[in-house]
Each structure stands twice: as structure tokens, then as C-alpha cells.
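Duplicate of #3305? Posting structure anyway:
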């Protein structure tokens, strides 16, 4: 074992017990498994921060825009582990501001990661963004009609609004917040 080899070489070894969060040992294998199975809250707990991906905004099919929920699509790096396909409550950092978002991970012909930024409709193609995954909402599923998809997205967005709890009236320091994006800096929601 490593200790006996080090001792033979005159190297002092200190064995450190496994680091735990709660009753779970923090191991990259456990974190990867939580991400692959969509258990984002557990992955975040072991990481000690919210899982995120950084990328650039790319053109998509504009399906979300056509049904009233414009999204930003991001270029997914093939070496970055992406959470299980589904819908997540999250945040998008863009141009120094942070926005509450509905993040969708879809796997059809290829992997697609897109975010509907709540209350946002600017053109941001080519911009760098960070998508932060905070809470799993539901698994990805197929909808028979566009109307059924639209109704489900409405429900998802309302649920995410409730989770993020972005309510300017409840901010004790709301006068310091001069935009929706900067509001998150003033009020960090608990999920």
C-alpha cells in the first residue's frame, strides 16, 4: 500500500479520513452519479456549490420563441458532464448580472442545453454565459402537441418562480437593486 512504500522511501504519510457532507462521503464518483441521475441538489451538496456550465449562446431552432418562451441555447462541450435530461430551476449569469431561469436539458439526435430566462428577451447570441443548476423540476418528456408543451412550460416557469422567490417587495435592501439581474445579488434564494 501507499503508506508502506512511502515509509520505505522515508516519506511521512498522514492518513486523512474521508470528507463527508452529512452521512455521504464526498467522492467525484458520487457527484457524477447524482448528475447523471438528475439529483442536482445532492450533487450541489457534495460539491459545496451549485453545478454550472460555461459556454457561448448559439442559435437554436427558435421553437421556444415561437410558443412565447424564448430560450438561449448553449454550445455544450463534449467533455463537460451535463445533468440528466430534464427541466431545472436555475440561474443564468450574463454580462455581469444573474437571472432566474428555467433550464432544459434535452437528448434527441444531440444534446441540447437551453435556458428560458424569466422576464428577459434580449438578443445575446455569441455572448458568454454561465448556467447554474439549482433544483430539479421534472424529467424530460415528449408532448403530443405544441399546446400541451406550452401549458407544461407555463407550469414549470410558475414552479420555478416560486422556488427562486424573486419578489422585490420582500427584499430588505431592494433599493440597492437596479435591475432584475442584480436583484439576485441582493437576495439569494434558498432552495
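Output from current build:
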Amino acid at each position: 500500500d501507499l503508506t508502506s512504500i512511502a515509509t520505505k522511501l522515508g516519506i511521512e504519510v498522514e492518513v486523512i479520513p474521508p470528507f463527508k457532507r452529512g452521512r455521504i462521503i464526498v467522492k467525484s464518483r458520487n457527484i457524477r452519479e447524482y448528475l447523471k441521475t438528475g439529483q442536482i441538489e445532492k450533487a450541489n451538496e457534495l460539491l459545496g456549490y451549485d453545478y454550472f456550465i460555461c459556454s457561448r449562446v448559439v442559435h437554436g431552432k427558435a421553437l421556444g420563441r415561437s410558443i412565447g418562451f424564448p430560450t438561449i441555447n448553449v454550445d455544450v462541450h463534449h467533455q463537460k458532464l451535463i445533468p440528466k435530461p430534464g427541466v431545472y430551476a436555475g440561474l443564468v449569469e450574463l454580462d455581469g448580472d444573474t437571472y432566474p431561469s428555467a433550464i432544459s436539458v434535452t437528448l434527441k439526435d444531440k444534446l441540447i442545453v437551453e435556458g428560458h430566462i424569466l422576464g428577459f428577451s434580449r438578443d445575446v447570441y455569441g455572448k458568454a454565459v454561465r448556467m447554474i443548476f439549482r433544483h430539479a423540476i421534472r424529467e424530460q418528456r415528449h408532448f403530443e402537441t405544441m399546446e400541451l408543451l406550452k401549458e407544461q412550460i407555463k407550469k414549470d416557469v410558475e414552479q420555478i418562480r416560486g422556488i427562486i422567490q424573486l419578489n422585490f417587495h420582500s427584499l430588505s435592501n431592494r433599493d440597492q437593486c437596479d435591475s432584475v439581474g442584480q436583484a439576485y445579488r441582493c437576495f439569494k434564494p434558498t432552495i
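Confirmed duplicate; merging threads. The longest helix spans residues 146-164. The chain is about 30% helix and 30% strand.
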